[in-house]
Structure formats: C-alpha cells, structure tokens
# Entry
Amino acid sequence: MTTRNLEALFAPRSVALVGASNQPGSVGAVLARNLMESGFAGPILAVNPHERSIRSALSYHSLAELPSPADLAVIATPPPTVPGLIADLARQGCRAAVVITAGFGEAGGGGADLRQAMLSAARPALLRIVGPNCLGVISPPAGLNASFAQLTPKPGPLALVLQSGAIATAALDWADARGFGFSRIVTLGDMADVDFGDMLDFLALDEATEGVLLYVETVTNARKFMSAARALGRTKPVTVIKAGRSAAGARAALSHTGALAGADAVYDAAFRRAGLLRVFELRELFDALTTLSSGMSVAGDRLAIVSNGGGAGVLAVDALDARGGRIAELAPSTLEALGQALPAAWSKGDPVDIVGDAGPDRYEAALEAVLADPGADAVLAINCPTAVADSTAAAEAVLKVVSRRRPRPALLTAWLGERAPAQARRLFAGARIPSHETPDEAVRAFMHLADHAKNQRLLMQTPAADAGDAPDRAAAARLVEGALAEGRTLLADAEAKAVLAAYGVPVLATAMAKTPLEAEAVARRLGGAVALKILSPDLTHKSDVGGVALNLAPEGVAAAAEAMLARVAKAAPAARLEGFMVQAMAAKPRAHELIAGLSSDPTFGPVVLFGAGGTAVEVLADRAVGLAPLNEHLAHDMIARTRISKLLAGYRDRPAADVDAVAAVLVRLARLAVDIPQIAELDINPLLADETGVLALDARIGVTAGEAAPPAIKPYPAELAGQVTAGDQVLELRPVKPEDAPRLMDLVARTDPEDVRLRFRAGLRRLPEAWAARLSQIDYDREMALAAIDAAGDIVGVARLAADPEGETAEFALLVRTDHQQRGLGHGLMDALIAYARRRGLSQLWGSIGRENRRMISLARELGFVLAADPDPALERATLAFGGATTSARS
# Structure
C-alpha cells in the first residue's frame, strides 16, 4: 500500500484520541495536552468511557458516540482493546491510526496474535497504522502534535523519521535549543504496517520537506526500502544514523566472508548504494543535513584552505587526512596570483596562510585566487581572532567575494572563538554560508558534501546485464544442486573451483588424493613444487590445525602427508579426514593476497566482500562490502574503500596489480549470487593479484536448500530482450542500461525539436547529461524503459513507464526518432510496454498527452486507451485499464 492514506497522518481533518486521560503525568494526559495546545485547527475528539471531559473538552464514551468519523485516530489503550478499536475506526471511514500502545509481541511475548488481528481489521478499509509501541507523529505545519513528546517543535524544512521514541525526544530537545524546525516527525515503533519505505516514498513528494533525517535500527522490507530511498535520494538530501554498529551482533559464520560481512557493514553498503549519507553521532546528523540543505555541492574531495593562522590551517589538514579527503594542489597561476597579493611571509602553498595581521583586503584577494583554481572542489576560509584585525570585516570580505561569483562557490567558514566571531557567524547564517566553530567541524562538513556526492554517483549505477563472457550457469547450478541432493551443505574443493571457473574466475588446477602415496603420485605428475592441503568437511580453516604445507618437492609429499595426518588428528581429533588436495605452487611470487567472497544477508540478500586476504584476514579486517548485483564502477569503488587498494596501486619497485581483473571477479561473484541463490557463503582466500591478473588458490562454497532473501536491488531484466519491427527493419529490443546515457543524448539530438518538446513538454536543444544519467539509471523494481536499437547500435526509440509506489498504476512515455516515425515502431514499443505492464500485474497504464500531439493521441486510441480531460487543460489523459482485454502485437 505504501503511501496510501498517509496524508491523513500529517494533515487530518479531525483527530480522535482514544485513551485520553486527565490523570497527571499519564500518556493519555500528555497526548491530550499536545493535541489540544499545538494549534491544530480541526476538531479533536477525546474518547474515554469514564470521563465527561478532557481538558475542558467533551469526552465521548465510545467511538460510536463520535459526532463524525475521525480522519486520524491516536490510540493509547491496553493491547487487547486495539484490534476492536481499529475495526470500528475502519468501518467509520478513519484513514490512519497511531498506536502508542506496546505489547504486540515486540519483545517476543504473546502479542503477535493481537498484532495480526489489528492489521487484519485495518486492511479492508486501507486504514494505515503507525506503530505500535511508538512516541507518535508530529506535523508542525499543520499544528499537529499527536505524540507524547515533551515539546512541540516549530515548523522547518527537515523531516525526522525514527524507530526510537527515546531518540526522538532527545533529538527534539537538542534541535529546539538550536532553533531547528521540522516538517514532519514520525516515530515508527515496531513498524507493523507503515515502515521506512512507506515514509520515504511519502516524503519524496512532500512539498513541506526539503531534507530527511533517519534513525534506523532495522529495515523490514529491503527492496521497498532501497527503491524508496533511491527515489528520495535523487531529489532530496537524506542523512541516516544507524544503531547497533558493534561487532558483537555479527553472527557465527562458516566462512571468513560470513564473519566479516556483519550486519552493520551490510547496512553501510545499502545506505551508500541508495545515495544516503551515513553519520555516527546525533549532533553530526543535524550538522550534516544542514550542510547538505545549504544548496552547496562539490564534485570531489579536494579542499583548499585559506587561514590567517598557520596552526589552524594545519589542524584542518590533519582533520582532512583523517577523514580521507585531499588537500588541493594549487595551480602555478594561482600561486603566482597569491604571491602578488600576499606578504612575503605567506605559506607559498595550500593551506594558504595569509598571516595573522590579514585584513579584509587580503582575505578578498586570497579567496578570489583560490576559488578560481580548478584543482579545488571547495574552499575553507578560517579566521582566528587577533588584536590587529577585525573578524567581522574579514567575514564581510568573504561575503563580498561570494556575491560576485555565479554560480555560487563551494565555500565553508570556520571563525574561531566565542565573542569575536559572533557577528561574523550571524552574517554567514544570513547568507546561508556554512559556518563552524573549529577547523575540524568545518572539514567534517566538507567531507559530508564529498561523501554525499560520491554516494549520489553510486546511486546512479545500475549493474548491466553481463560481466564479460557469459557464464555457464547450468554447469554451476548442477554442482550446487548435486551437493544439496546428497544432503551436503559444503561443496568439495574441486566442485567449488569448478563453480568459479564456470563464472570466469581464474582458478588453480587441483587434484585429489585419498592416501599419502596417491598424493605423492599426483605431485609427480604435476611436476615442480606443490602445495598439500588436508581434505575434511569439518575443518573450515585448514592452516589452524596444521593442514597446509607449501613448496613441497614431489618426492617428499608422502612423508609430509603422513606428518600432516598426525598433526591434524592431534589438533582436531573429531574431524573427518577424507584425503588430500594437491596443487601446483602458483608462480606469482610478488602477488598480493586478497579475499573475495559472498554472503547472504537475511535482510538485504546477497552481498559481496573484498579485502586483504591470507591467514590473518579477520585480524586485519580490511574489507569492503557491496550489495549484489554489481558493475565495474561499483566493484572499483569497493576496492578503493580498502587499505590494501593503496598497495594494489604499486609502490617502490612493485608494479601495480591488475585492478580491473580484481573488479571483474567481484562483478562475476555478484552475478553468481543472483543466479544461484542457494549459495549461502563463498570464500576465495587467497585470491592472488599481480600485474598479470588474478588467480584463485583456495575456494570454499557453502550451500543451503532454504529460501534466501532476494537482492535488495532488482537485477537487470535480461529476459525482456527481444525484437521489434519498424517497417521493413527488425530492431533489437531490450531494457535500457546505465551505459546507454550517451545513446539517449544522441536520440534527442537527432530527433526533431518539436517531437522532443512534445515528449518532454519543454524545449530542449540537447538532453542534459544529468537527465540522460537519470533516464538510463533504471530502478527496475519500479521503472522500465524499453529501447529499440538499430544495426548501428543507435537507440531509435524508447517506451518507458514509472509505477506508483503501490505498484498498481504506472505512467508511460514514448519517444521515437523522427526518421523512424510512421513505420509502426511507436506501436510496437507500446505493445511491448503494455505486455510488460500486464505481466507485472499493474491495474492501469496512463499518460498525459499534449492536445496538439495528434499522432500520440491517435496511437493511444489504437492501443485501446481511453481519452479523458486532464487536470491540465493543455493535456489529455490516456488511460488503459487491464481487465482481461488484449492488445494487438506488431512486435
């Protein structure tokens, strides 16, 4: 249902308070006070069977006595009464309810049946429920405080969505002292009905909300959350703080990957992939969104610093380095301009120390030069109060520079001290220039901008259909299904390597031996030095029990195997020993040992792990986690987030490793996880990487017959590929891919401007890159764009739909290149789109068509659409309801 009836939570016509009370200090009394004193303009109907009045307002003994149905109900009565109250409210036409009451099984008690009864009572009327076990809902623009919070905040542009009432009250108190206001405040409690995905969908279209703050403990519907967060994150800044970050919550796991890919690491990967900015402290939560909401944006993490105090500049550099940012390298022309404007004692580089006696003229000249430097993504201006220069005058000089530059530059300030900079900070606040008390706070704000920009780029990544050569999925699936049929949860080493080979991962040839003598015979056949490893389904980490021997000469293998049996039997007497694995020693003496693997998260589905490998992998804990599926860009981002990535780049006489080959392995593993969900865990450790490529030495794959969580981000729907006819041409038909952005720009450039205007309802000479990126980055769970491609590889037509959050209706759009019109291509594209909409289970497809677009109106009628008036008099609304009728198919 997602956003259905959620507007009743924030702008209800009337409110019923069930469980209102006059008892001082009770929840019912606080709710009554907040509702009646927060300025709500509609009627507030108190319900209490034992009171004649609540705070001088008439009290009704039951819902049946209410003079009119309530739009919103707030319920604070014992749990057993709630399902019946919800049923009565639903019959009366109530659209939403906030259930304050706890006791619905949230702590494993016996309330689960009550919870289900409550939901069943609400469902027939589509009555939405926030809670149970929540603080309530506050909508300051509507004067509505349907909560038992200690205060009513003032209106503002930020929405606050939390799972914790305690954190909500702390955040309200903190924000009130600092003058923050809110558009909406929602505590979701146990999320029996309304969850994060629902609220994010609502806030994406909420005109009162400019930015969103999230406090998350858990996500219940990962795919809905990711789709909603990605849609919201494209248009409004979202900052999130996640509780439960400690490693103590990580589950016991079969593999290194399972141990390292703990729940918090997966949540971190999900937030990054959705374009959200994660922070770790409550104050940082507000600071970050204030910075993001300033309208400032940056393209990278290079910061230039202008300061009248050398020490303050150095502190800023230290903070920048600690947070992973970079000091900008100023161009020679910038240094020359600074040299002409500054005294001889200036620092001659970045940070730009303009010396302690710097007046406004010096600030102005330095900022003019540094802001013009293309090597700086943002500039931090720092002022330390001195007796020989005026801090306020310096601030005025900064504002003077900013006022002359359009577009507005990315500029942050840190005016140090308490009394001296007070007026300067007021000036900056009035001009919406971020101002901070210390250099490290300013640097943190800059890195919020840089990290958010980076996450926005990740948000626009949608993995393509393939990862190099097509894998042999059937061969890999046979091995997994064979193990499960035998009741095994672990593939043999040879099976694991065969699965990897089927997906294009280079593996080291391996042979098995039952006895020490067989192991030596195998070693002699391989020739050269070999590695000997014990085979046992009970030993996860062979080296821990002496089950690995390296660089053995063939003639010494039998003796080494006998000794290994004795060591392992002593260290792990209960382990079943099934023989030995013999491998030729890999000829990569200078290779880096990496780990790559898969794990299945119960919430977000398959995840990919990468990091430093070897026997100390868990001690080093140098790893990055990403959600499957991946593409090369996302894989490279994962690699860059590890410490070992600096070594992979090469150092001293050691050449750079083939990072593209490493990224390809991650992409292929992600595809394997999506293709074969029975793979519960997978380790490649070590994955050797050098300048010649990669090689998987050891592999371990755990499988399960249970149902795994699906990928939180829907993979590319390759099954929709086909053909479409345009006159005498048969064109390729497939869903749009992320790499199609240049083709979409070319499509618009080669289409008549009038056709473009009719499609976009705006005059466009060219499709902006940002639009092309957005139109090619498809959230396949909610959108679809089918492209027709000619023999030259050009896109000559696109039909797309965007479904509503409920997944019931969708809006369509169509563009065909002018030279391919009048050939039936538009009809064929729309036929394919309609067929997809039917299969998906949509109830309706609709579009708004300009009245002068007669060809599109005619096509809509041919396809069975019903034309009617649109709210915009310049448009007509075309609607196709799916009730069993079929459409023609020329494709």
In short: DSSP finds 29 helices and 38 strands in the chain.
